[in-house]
Amino acid sequence: MRVFITGGTGLIGTAVVAELLTAGHSVTVLTRSDASAARARAAGADALPGGLADLAVLRGGAEQADGVIHLAFSNDFSSPEAWARGIAEESAALETLGEALVGTGRPLVTVSGTPAAAGRASTEDDPVPTDGPVGGRGRSVNRTLALAERGVRSSAVRMPRTVHHQGEGGFAGLLTGIARRTGVSGYPGDGAQRWPAVHARDAATLFRLALEEAPAGTAWHAVADEGDAVRDIAAVIGRRLGLPVESVPPESFGALATIFAADQPASSAHTRAALGWKPTHPSLLDDLENIQP
């Protein structure tokens, strides 16, 4: 299969590209810079210059592919306004990719986040939020899944709070960065809130399975660890960096304060049973042992 992928040189995307190539697919990566293009080619993929705002480039890449995986996002959490701009950019990009595939029966796999479910781990049947700080992404994903009614084999891989590799990545990686800057490995509140996690290589396998097999209009959970307490995550970070581990005010985390303070475990039981997905790589707490002081 000829696969067009956005976000193919990031932490998750690099793993997805490697997984696809190993499985015998050919890959074209959307690249925003010469350095990104060089990384894509070094991995064995082709490079298509452009960014998420280059809608004509996106349309052309999708039209020439047998399947599309969308991973790119601005990841600018500096302010609510920056977050909103990133969501708007992604929404327009996804609409363009989807329209290019209407009536073809080809797969479009997009990325989402695992939802919250009060008092329990969320499942693949729970809806993603369509209001609040991440509501815009939820609405965009729902529109993409609705393309199943227009001849697109659309699916969404819902990612947990942390996608990690060698101790880096995701919300745990943000906690590590904040700890380095402030000299404290902090967690919001009592730290009992739970964050699910997955290793990037396990997530990559699920993206490939969704591309190859997922029925139209379906959502899947890339969750290996249902939920580690944030204070346990902070404890490993603090020990590895030689820093004190303390509760800090939620507002210390800026635009992500509400999200960081939320309890949001998630299950992948249906995904494992239906697609045969079996995570095999290290858990988050084990992988955080790779953090360098």
Automatic annotation (TrEMBL):
Q: Where is the NAD-dependent epimerase/dehydratase domain?
A: 3-216
Q: Name one Pfam family in it.
A: Epimerase
Q: Which GO terms describe its molecular function?
A: aldehyde dehydrogenase (NAD+) activity
- Taxonomically, the superkingdom here is Bacteria
Family annotation (InterPro entries): Epimerase_deHydtase, NAD(P)-bd_dom_sf, NAD(P)-dependent_oxidoreduct
Gene Ontology CC: cytoplasm
Q: Where is this region: Disordered?
A: 113-139
Q: What is this protein called?
A: Nucleoside-diphosphate-sugar epimerase
- Output the lineage of the source organism: Bacteria, Bacillati, Actinomycetota, Actinomycetes, Kitasatosporales
